[in-house]
Specification:
- 69% of the residues lie in helices and 7% in strands.
- The longest helix is centred in the C-terminal third of the chain and has 80 residues, at 354-433.
- The protein has helices at 6-9, 23-59, 90-101, 104-114, 118-123, 126-136, 165-222, 231-272, 291-308, 314-335, 341-344, 354-433, 457-482, 489-495, 510-542, 546-555, and strands spanning 64-73, 137-146, 150-162, 439-444.
- Helix 2 (23-59) packs across helix 13, helix 2 packs across helix 15 and helix 8 crosses helix 9.
- Strands 2-3-1-4 form a four-stranded antiparallel sheet.
- By secondary structure, the protein is an alpha+beta fold.
- Residues 1-21, 274-287 and 338-349 have low confidence and may be disordered.
- The protein has three domains: 6-59 and 454-501 and 526-555, no CATH class; 64-205 and 418-444; 231-404.
Length: 556
């Protein structure tokens, strides 16, 4: 039960009995005893990790951060006048713009332009450098509560971090300008694309509308007069034609009656007419009626009789027989002319009287009027038939026209709707081109800051101190738990196997002292070497390692 620490502890530990010690005093003495036994272990366990972490914190490079605040300006023209065609949410559009700006081509151009990550580019591939820059660019949305729209994004902050404060500020401002430009281009593209799409749809709708108009025009031309909208005019015209036909019939009836009256009067006048006798050379008797005069008279009487009687009437039969005989006699006389002039001049017809001439003229006028009225009647009957056909065909044409008009009206309504939408899209496109729509504006540009954003060295030092102290205490407690040797007489008394009769202190010789000093020097030298190695390795690990700065900063 020898203990190398008994010589240092002295007999003070045995001065008082366990019954006289309080619980607090026993605890303090136990801690003091453990410190006396394990102080070098605790010191080494504390110094080595603290030196490593402190060296690492000191070696970490300074990282600067610059932030640009961009305000989202809403559409300057009221939406009730110009409706925007860019309807995507601002947050969605910002994410889309972010993916566009953080693309490989954009970031590689920025890296080359500002000569970013020169050391890192020598060590890793370009893909890792681009990914590193993506992690250095941060987007943070700033929202406000709106009763109508809920949470609305009113601004956003763009930040970039790096080793050179001026370069960091320039990169942050450049990225913000990319956001502004890309937002304008994106909105212009969407507005122009919408207008172009509506233009194509409008041309297609106009083509269909023209085709429908041609069909409607051809239908109207083909069935002109039978269209539903002409129904009333057709009925009016039919009624007018029917009235004219009735008047024509009345006029024909009156003309026929007038012709019969004139024919009767002419027949009576012809019956009363006499043949004037002509003296014959040598004082002979009166010459008979000439054949030509008789033919004329018989024709007039027959015309008058036809107006009054039928063809089977005896008078008509008699007049026709006499007329045939008179015409035959007249033909024979013409074939055999007189042998001398004296015989031919024996007789001649009595010239008609003025009354007969007037009757003949009136009869001819009446007959001409009847012919005109009959021709007019034929025309009126044809027109009435045509209008009746139109009226009868109107219901069928109305159904056909309704079917055709329905397609035409639908196409026309669609065309007018597209015209309105295309005009709105053109207004929206003009508004975007004039930059009157929703746009981004920098209100707080990035400036170079002399205060690094990371690492937070005081905080890291405090954290290292706490971790090192905890590690030392834990290690000492672990060693104490694993140590099964007895360090005090009370430990033996606690076993209760045998009473403790005497205590023999440790006898230290000159050789033991030299051996202890030599071991102490070796242990101190080894600890110093280990301390230098650990501190050097930590410094090398942390020197210029910005990625470790970000990791440590996020962990802190």
């Amino acid at each position: 039960m020898s203990d190398p620490s008994w010589g240092n502890s002295g007999p003070a530990g045995w001065a008082s009995s366990p019954s006289e010690e309080t619980a607090k005093g026993a605890g303090i003495d136990r801690v003091r005893a453990i410190w006396q036994r394990r102080k070098w272990l605790a010191i080494v366990a504390f110094v080595l990790p603290f030196a490593a972490t402190a060296s690492l914190v000191v070696a970490l490079p300074q990282v600067y951060k610059s932030t640009v605040v961009v305000l989202v300006e809403r559409q300057q023209v009221p939406e009730q006048f110009v409706k925007p065609t860019v309807t995507s949410e601002l947050e969605t559009r910002l994410q889309t713009i972010t993916q566009e700006i953080l693309s490989r081509s954009r970031l590689e151009a920025l890296i080359k332009r500002f000569n970013l990550y020169p050391e890192l580019r020598k060590q890793v591939s370009s893909e890792e450098v681009v990914e590193r820059m993506r992690s250095d660019v941060r987007l943070e949305l700033k929202s406000s509560a709106d009763q109508r729209r809920g949470t609305t994004t009113v601004a956003f902050a763009l930040s970039y971090q790096g080793g050179d404060p001026r370069t960091v500020a320039q990169v942050a401002n450049t990225v913000a300008s990319f956001y502004i430009e890309e937002n304008l281009k994106s909105r212009e593209r969407q507005a122009a694309g919408t207008a172009e799409f509506l233009k194509v749809q409008l041309e297609e709708a106009q083509r269909r509308l023209d085709e429908q108009e041609r069909k409607v025009s051809a239908f109207r031309t083909r069935y002109l007069g039978e269209l539903p909208q002409q129904m009333q005019s057709n009925l009016t015209s039919l009624e007018s034609l029917t009235t004219q036909l009735r008047l024509n019939s009345d006029n024909q009836l009156r003309a026929s009656e007038r012709r019969e009256a004139l024919a009767g009067q002419l027949a009576e006048a012809a019956t009363l007419s006499q043949v004037v006798p002509l003296p014959v050379a040598g004082g002979g008797a009166v010459a008979p009626e000439p054949a030509a005069v008789r033919v004329v008279r018989l024709k007039q009487e027959l015309a008058a009789a036809n107006a009054r009687f039928t063809d089977l009437h005896p008078t008509i039969v008699r007049l026709k027989a006499e007329l045939v005989a008179a015409e035959a006699e007249l033909g024979q006389v013409k074939a055999e002319p007189p042998k001398d002039g004296a015989a031919g001049a024996q007789a001649f017809a009595v010239p008609p009287s003025p009354y007969v001439l007037r009757l003949r003229e009136s009869l001819q006028s009446t007959e001409a009027e009847l012919k005109v009225l009959k021709a007019e009647e034929q025309q009126l009957r044809g027109a009435v038939a045509a209008y009746r056909s139109r009226v009868e065909n109107t219901p069928r044409r109305e159904q056909e026209f309704l079917d055709l008009s329905r397609d035409y009206d639908t196409t026309k309504a669609h065309y007018q709707s597209l015209v309105k939408r295309h005009e709105d899209a053109q207004l929206a496109e003009s508004m975007e081109q004039r930059q009157k729509g929703e746009q981004f504006r920098v209100i707080e540009p990035a400036i170079a800051s002399d205060i690094p954003a990371a690492p937070n060295r005081p905080r890291l030092f405090a954290l290292a101190l706490a971790l090192s102290a905890g590690l030392a205490v834990g290690l000492v407690m672990l060693v104490e738990m694993l140590d099964t040797s007895f360090h005090a007489a009370d430990d033996l008394r606690a076993l209760g196997v045998a009473p403790v009769l005497a205590r023999i202190p440790r006898i230290v010789t000159e050789a033991d002292t030299r051996r202890s000093r030599r071991r102490f020097r070796l242990a101190a030298a080894a600890t110093a070497v280990a301390l230098i190695a650990v501190a050097g390795a930590s410094y090398a690990l942390g020197h210029g390692n910005e990625r470790l700065v970000y990791m440590v900063s996020r962990g802190a």
